Amino acid sequence: MAIEYLGLSEINGPLVVLEGVEDAAYDEIVEFQISEKEKKLGRIIAAYKDKVLIQVFEGTEGLSLENTRTRLTGHPMEVSLSEDMLGRTFNGIGVPIDGLGPITSDVRRDVNGLPLNPVTRLYPRNYIRTGISAIDGLTTLIRGQKLPIFSGNGLPHDRLAAQIVQQASLGDNSDEKFAIVFAAMGVKYDVADYFRKTFEESGVSDHVVMFLNLANDPVVERLITPKIALTTAEYLAFEKNMHILVILTDITSFCEAMREVSSSKGEIPSRKGYPGYLYSELATLYERAGIVKGIDGSVTQIPILTMPNDDITHPIPDLTGYITEGQIVLDRALHGQSIYPPISVLPSLSRLMKDGIGEGYTREDHQDVANQLFSCYAKVGDARSLASVIGEDELSDIDKLYLIFGKMFEKHFIGQSPEENRDIETTLNIGWKLLGLLPREELDRIDTKLLDKYYKKSVYDPSTETVEFADQTA
């Protein structure tokens, strides 16, 4: 029988101290009875003999040192799970906010998840199509992968996240079950409303589970939101055999909430004021992606984070890069040229891409085309640097071709409409059309057989800024 305690010893921001407690456990959930109708939840984050430190999820407003009744539940944070969650919207701690009533289910799971036995993990294969050429063609997302997006304040990562939710699929020929778990942390109300409306109007809401933690919600709530989202994803993937794509935005808000709570606890700060366990907390989230032997489902993650001051060496992107298998970097200069999505190709990579593309997955020429586009675009940077010194007119003919290639690559391959959903064939064909601007002897990363099959000369029209294949019969 649970013991109920009357009164609190101390209230400090989102934390409360309770003394005289028996048999309390770390991570145990606590219920606060404020009035007959109002309850709040908390979590024990530290225990010293008969004293416990409790994080209050919904904030400490309304709690009283004298009259608050506290009950220890004896179990960690759990969430009710069901396939009925698809198409529903929840707040940061898993309570429905769409007016459709609570989730009734006998299935409850600890939000911290169960560690995956490394022996049971399968190597990620097969790609997830986002419909975005710069991702599908050059930094392909593989099922079971964790591939973060590094953005910055003011860059269109919210629009990109919404587009991925609208367009993501397992491919045209797949009959496997696919769904998306979308978790937003610390977003403003208008951004949350944008996500809601976009998903509803595009008709994808029925296969999306959405968790929204708003900027004015308590900071502590932010720490539990991604865990609830990933617990939902694991249930749908490993118990319902679905392929789940988890989008977490913004991981920076999660980390700043961790820093704020750590400061309230009086912990000694590490780099940039973040707690020393930032790495392990991020790893705890990111490593909940993967494929398990004997189960048809998978969990794939796209965490989105905003780099403070566009600094890729900041602790959050720095540690994220250590844990994940690549990154997609958004570029402010491309955004300034009105190129959407402003994906900076050269610092972006997908380390698992090579094992989920090519013949039998996408198309036989995919890897060679990606390698050649990377190589040619790197040479564009050299040509632009040279042109800034000696002037464009003094460049060699081949350098001038690289400048044209670079301009068209940014406009037609990286750039696409937010409503444009390209299949992999379209993406690769655009790549060949752009490579056709360059002489065949410049394409040294592509197998000769593939060149014979796909390579055609292209013509650039400066009046319309378009590229088309030259007439092969002329």
CATH uppermost class of the largest domain:
Alpha Beta
Domain count, please report it.
Answer: 3
Which class do the helix and strand fractions yield? alpha/beta
Helix count, per DSSP?
12
Globally, the shape reads elongated
Keywords:
proton-transporting ATPase activity, rotational mechanism, ATP-synt_VA_C, hydrogen ion transport, 7-stranded antiparallel sheet, 31% helix, 12 helices, alpha/beta, elongated, 24% strand, Bovine Mitochondrial F1-ATPase, ATP Synthase Beta Chain, Chain D, domain3, ion transport, Elongation Factor Tu (Ef-tu), domain 3, 474 residues, proton-transporting ATP synthase activity, rotational mechanism, Rossmann fold
